[in-house]
Design brief:
The structure holds two protein chains of two kinds.
Chain A: H1 2-20, H2 28-38, H3 46-57, H4 61-78, H5 80-95, H6 112-122, H7 128-134, H8 145-166, E1 174-175, H9 177-184, E2 196-197, E3 205-211, H10 217-233, E4 238-242, E5 246-248, H11 258-268, H12 278-293, E6 298-303, H13 312-325, E7 328-333, H14 346-351, E8 357-360, H15 364-376
Parallel strand pairs in A: 3-4, 3-6, 6-7, 7-8
Antiparallel strand pairs in A: 1-2, 4-5
Helix pairs in contact in A: 1-2, 1-4, 2-3, 8-10, 8-15, 12-13
Chain B: H1 3-14, H2 21-33, E1 37-41, H3 47-58, E2 62-66, H4 73-76, E3 78-80, H5 82-95, H6 101-105, E4 111-113, H7 115-121, E5 127-131, H8 138-150, E6 152-155, E7 159-162, E8 168-173, H9 181-185, E9 188-192, H10 197-207, H11 213-228, H12 237-249, H13 257-263, H14 271-278, H15 282-285
Parallel strand pairs in B: 1-8, 1-9, 2-5, 5-8
Antiparallel strand pairs in B: 3-4, 6-7
Helix pairs in contact in B: 1-2, 10-11, 10-12
């Protein structure tokens, strides 16, 4: 029993390091408290143990949102039976590569090993993390998927923290007489501390339109995760998905449970992995939601490969309308990351003149670059 | 589930508060590790009520400090009773005994205890609720650090006052501003979110036992669908309860367009939100939802 306790405590320390690597600020005090709860009969119930650690380790909502998933991911490794099941699960996922769906997002890859080698050749000398950041989502081997997801989670979280810090109030500007007098009350009426006021920054409003058609299958999952992270910091972010039909996804995001969000998206999003009618979908967006989400305060980001199967002139008209009515229109195309990519498809070539920016979104680095674009708009 | 936590959930249930296992674990841990608990969440999800119910459960007093901008030491910790000091100065002057004057008038007898000092000098542990800590200034937040980590308060004229009994401290915040890392580090943390549909129906039944089952289900479905809409301020549990009470007063059996028109003001507090709901059919908000 004592040996078991020692092993468990070692794993607990590993978990502390695992959390620290994911921007949880944990001092030895928290480790001690975690040890203390292992003595208090919390270990007999997994959920209770999870909630107890959550209470000790989390210091903000952002931590709390991520903790459950991190806990499951880490401790499922600790439980042997789950560890043994993993190779079978991976095999099962590879077998089902023909039927792309939300459940297998990002795990449906043809001939993974060969393509990974091709990518690796282009980034010689890079370590595993850099390699993963540079590798095209569609060329990640199934075995590396979990590692990529962890890396994506960590990097997106870091990005979200940067957003948050930049959005903090500054302590300069014009003197706020009312607050200065109020502050002086605690100093016996002496105005030692000045209070400042600054014109409130205009809130950024971002609208994401994500293509979830079959041709985008290998990218949709990561793009979806990316949007979910941004949603936490852009309160006015609106999210739509489209393939042959448009779905307003924002109402499904009003929960903290990420797995519940994925389930809801799986249930409600129309035409996941089906054909692409970008023009018709964008027209639907303009007609139904344009009055609300298209203004000079809105930045519109379209994430699509631009492989239009519908009427190209519809697409051109819709893009033109959106560009006219919003502050800035950005098109992110995962195909742009391919070495010999030329924007010669009918869909893309017709809309290019109406875009403010045309960028790539094929790997983690390209997604992280969008941060700068969003900040500067 | 741990036996003590199970018991805590049962006791809270007895006091008409439906406690989630996660929050119950935090409350149990808070007492067990003797650390303050920071509760964050949307307004109206029951953060303040947790402290009140905990005080009832522990059969102890609740000392509440409502925070606001400009809150200072004099209103939260202590203040010298100047009138009493002046009276005694006059008295000592008459007696001619001025040697002991300084020691006497800066004693505990001349101190007016404010909530924080009251909480640490109580004979038996009390529940101290520091409500809406995000509304105070950063300076006051820094002053709290000593109390939260060491359960002591320093008064320049008297020295350090140690807690005679450690209070059970609950801090709440609506996240109107970011709290400092130093404060967060000293607390256990729990995010109080909106409850599931079933849990919210249970809350309505607990708080309003006379409510009809179907009406409670309709109210909760309506509120949950409202929360999914892009509103300025999504309604909390407090609003669900207010609306259910209103509907009971109106003798309503079901939610109809007319009832929504007349009573939605008890749920939504922004004109744009009210207009948004009034422009839609009630059936859109009674669309069944999953838990």
């Amino acid at each position: 029993m004592e040996a078991l306790q020692t092993t468990f405590k070692e794993h607990l320390i590993d978990f502390v390091f695992y959390c620290r690597a994911r921007q949880f600020v944990l001092s030895p005090q928290q480790t001690l408290e975690a040890f203390e709860i292992t003595e208090k009969h919390f270990l007999t119930h997994r959920k209770t143990f999870q909630y107890a650690l959550k209470s000790i380790f989390c210091k903000s909502k952002e931590h709390a949102d991520r903790f459950d998933e991190m806990f499951d991911r880490f401790w499922s490794r600790f439980y042997k039976e789950e560890l043994e099941q993993r190779p079978f699960q991976l095999k099962a996922q590879e077998k089902k590569s023909e039927s792309a769906s939300l459940i297998f997002m990002g795990a449906t890859f043809p001939n993974p090993n060969k393509q990974k080698e091709e990518e690796a050749k282009k980034t010689t000398g890079a370590n595993a993390t850099t390699l993963l950041r540079e590798t095209d989502f569609s060329k990640i081997a199934a075995a590396d998927k979990e590692q990529l997801e962890e890396l994506a989670e960590a990097l997106f979280h870091e990005m979200s923290l940067r957003f948050k810090r930049r959005l903090k109030k500054s302590k300069s500007g014009r003197i706020n007489i009312q607050n200065t007098i109020r502050k002086s009350l605690s100093k016996g009426g002496l105005m030692l501390d000045l209070a400042y006021k600054k014109k409130a920054k205009e809130k950024r409003k971002v609208v994401f339109l994500l293509d979830v058609s079959g041709s985008m299958d290998t990218y949709s999952f990561y793009l979806l995760r990316y949007i979910l992270v941004l949603k936490k910091y852009f309160k006015s972010l609106e999210f739509f998905s489209f393939s042959t039909r448009l779905t307003h996804v924002t109402p499904l995001l009003r929960t903290n449970d990420e797995s519940a969000i994925y389930k809801a998206i799986g249930r409600h999003v129309k035409g996941w992995s089906s054909g692409t009618k970008i023009g018709a979908s964008l027209k639907e967006f303009c007609d139904l939601y344009g009055h609300k989400f298209l203004s000079q305060k809105h930045i519109v980001v379209i994430l699509s490969d631009g492989l239009e199967t519908g009427n190209v002139s519809d697409l051109q008209t819709a893009v033109k309308t959106i560009q006219k009515r919003c502050k800035s229109l950005i098109w992110l195309n995962p195909l742009k990351g391919m070495a010999n990519y030329q924007p010669i498809q009918k869909g893309i070539i017709n809309v290019m003149p109406h875009l403010d920016r045309f960028e790539t979104a094929h790997n983690l680095n390209s997604l992280l670059k969008l941060e700068k674009i969003l900040m500067n708009v | 589930m741990n036996k003590e936590i199970e018991q805590l959930i049962r006791d809270f249930d007895h006091h008409r508060y439906i406690l989630s296992e996660e929050l119950a674990t935090s409350l149990y841990l808070m007492q067990s590790l003797e650390k303050p608990l920071l509760l964050e969440g949307h307004p109206g999800v029951g953060k303040t009520l947790v402290a009140a119910t905990l005080a009832k459960h522990l059969q102890t007093d609740l000392i509440r400090l409502q925070c606001y901008e400009g809150l200072d030491v004099n209103t939260t910790i202590y203040e010298w009773n100047y009138q009493k000091q002046l009276l005694h100065i006059k008295l000592y002057e008459k007696e001619g005994n001025t040697a002991v004057l300084g020691d006497k008038i800066f004693g505990m007898d001349y101190l007016l205890k404010r909530p924080l000092l009251q909480s640490i000098s109580a004979e038996k542990p009390v529940v101290l609720l520091i409500d809406e800590i995000d509304r105070t200034d950063e300076e006051f937040e820094a002053y709290l650090l000593e109390l939260l980590s060491d359960f002591q308060i320093s008064i320049p004229e008297l020295g350090t006052i140690q807690a005679t009994s450690k209070p059970i401290v609950i801090l709440t915040s609506n996240r109107t501003r970011e709290l400092s890392d130093a404060l967060r580090r000293r607390c256990l943390y729990n995010w109080v979110g909106f409850p599931s549909r079933t849990a919210e129906i249970d809350i309505l039944h607990k708080q309003l036992p006379e409510i009809d089952e179907n009406l409670a289900a309709e109210v909760v479905t309506f509120i949950h669908n409202l929360r999914k809409s892009s509103l300025h301020k999504p309604p909390g549990i407090a609003e669900s309860l207010d609306w259910a009470k209103t509907l009971l007063l109106l003798n309503a059996d079901h939610i109809t367009d007319e009832i929504v028109m007349n009573s939605i003001g008890s749920v939504l507090k922004h004109q744009e939100d009210v207009d948004f709901v009034k422009n839609k059919s009630v059936q859109e908000f009674l669309f069944p939802i999953n838990d």
